[in-house]
Amino acid sequence: MPRRRCRSHKFRPTTAAADILGIFDSGLGGLTVLRAVRALLPGEDIVYYADQAHVPYGDRTPDELVQLLAHNVAYLEACGVDAIVMGCNTSCAIAASRGWPATRVPILDLIAAAADDVVNSGARRIGVVGTLATVRSRAYGRAILQRDAAIVVEEVAAPALVPLVESGFLSGPIVRKAVADVCARFSGPLDVLVLACTHYPLLDAHFVAALGDVRRIDPAQAQGRRAAAIMQQQRARGHAHVNYVTTGELEAYRAAVQAIVGPQTDRARFTTAPPLRLKSRDAAPLPCR
Length: 289
Hints:
Elements: E1 20-25, H1 31-40, E2 45-50, H2 62-78, E3 83-85, H3 89-98, E4 107-108, H4 110-121, E5 125-130, H5 132-137, H6 139-147, E6 152-157, H7 161-166, H8 173-183, E7 192-195, H9 204-211, E8 215-217, H10 219-233, E9 242-246, H11 250-261, E10 268-272
């Protein structure tokens, strides 16, 4: 059966036998997942979809997040991807409570990957820092405790961090203080901190400054390993093409990708896609610490 193609970005591997991975996020954070995937699968063809028109997802309501998840999965499916490697923790959190949209391809869940890493670490006191929506969902706590009920999990929301990253603030006193303020809200010492938003590893130096030698778990690394395993099972063949798609401003996106991922070759393409028009918002959720 011929592979369906996504018309909006004209992504074409050089042969029909190539396999394609899809990654999406609300913006730039999922590039940490892309970096982890490329480190293990340097020849893989990838479509990276950044829904910057709707960033940050963490401040959106559950109904909006369900709409965005379904749209983003359908978009990548229309691009002909063979697997979707989630680059958005907030979308994984809403899927944990509302369910995943129907799809013909496997989806690799960030939260499951991180929970496995937490249990394998042997740590007993776990901090989770995530977006408002992720923390409200308690998806990380449930996933970890399902694997080991003796672990103590404390989740803290950090709504200020994603807008800082999207605005290009990866260093300097403003972002340093924002990270320190988040870390100060944990009630006691931690054995492990889970960076439960893919934007946060881009601020890792500030978490180190605030918490010292506390181990950080970056779910993007586990996603890279899982993606490599599934594509090796399929004996995937690629040509190192990457198509970077945004629903936001193209040139700013191009500059941000170059800053985070590094210089791009002629096998990289940058394109735009129209954003989803969301239906009316549901009731605003209650505040969360």
